[in-house]
Amino acid sequence: MPRNLDLTALRSFVAVAENGGVTRAAGVLNLTQSAVSMQLKRLEDGLGIALLDRAGRGVALTATGEQLLGYARRMLSLNDEIYARMTDQAFEGEVVLGVPHDIVYPAIPQVLQRFNAEYPRVKVQLVSSFTTRLKQMFNRGEAAIVLTTEDAVEAGGETLCELPLAWVGAPGGSAWRQRPLRLAFEHNCIFRRSVQDALDADGVPWEMGVEADSSRTIEASVSADLAVHVMLEGMEPAYMERIAHGGGLPALPSKQINMYANRLASDPVSDNLIDALRQAFGAL
Fold it and tell me: What are the φ and ψ backbone dihedral angles of 283, each rounded to 5 degrees?
């Protein structure tokens, strides 16, 4: 007799695999940790196999878990496509979403993928730029929703999470040991003043080694070990790493990730995207 897989349990399994643990997956799915854990256990019991290796401190997939992941993604994608096509055909249009380039990963691709599955006829135009420009776009009505990185939220905004700044450099690099310390920043980066103030307060000599309008230029320079940069903790790409300086560089402040949404244009589609952003960044 054919047996059916539980799509809810499969969705929890995929969320755990993609977010690196039960805690973050629970935040993304808007469920409790215990609910996610129970769904994983039900899936393992139903298949009679172990999907997660729980021996270490983190969560890793077993060989069979890695094999299931591809199937699970395809099943969920087809399920979401069918559901969207059969139910939400009335919604169409475009939503402009502004996000600072340094917080696009890891959350935004997941948000866009899920939103597209639910509203396939709604186009999300993603604009990646600096906080100052994104807020200007929002104030002019050119973007319905923008995320920002700031010291404090302004009127009408909502704080999604707060993360510390971290020093980042090339993997295994030594640029952070040089004095004066060579910094790499975009001209309009909102973090650079906080970094310079922290260095001055600790008496660390520095120079602006690389300045550019392009984030790609900064990333290439830092990954080549020509200078150091700062990013919100957990947002560093694979070609950079958090510097284990052991106190050789000053501690840095935290920054808020805030959201501003055009409430005058509130509708089910925008509200869904707003909720997805809350869940994704609240889980960081």
Answer: -85, -10
pLDDT in tens, 174-221: 999 999 999 999 998 989 999 999 999 999 999 999 999 888 999 999
Q: Which CATH superfamily is domain 93-161+256-282 in?
A: Periplasmic binding protein-like II (3.40.190.10)
CATH classification number, 7-87, choose in 3.40.50.360, 1.10.10.10, 1.20.272.10, 3.50.50.60: 1.10.10.10
**Is there a contact between 259 and 174 (Cβ–Cβ < 8 Å)?**
no
Complete DSSP assignment for 19-47: HTSHHHHHHHHT--HHHHHHHHHHHHHHH
**pLDDT tens-place string over residues 211-221:** 998 889 999 99
Q: Which CATH class is domain 163-253?
A: alpha beta
C-alpha of 53 from chain center: 25
Burial of 144 (0-12, 13-18, 19+ CB in 10 A): buried
Half-sphere exposure of 76 (CA within 13 A, CB side): 19
CA distances from 104 to 54, 60, 112, 147, 233 (A): 30, 24, 11, 10, 13
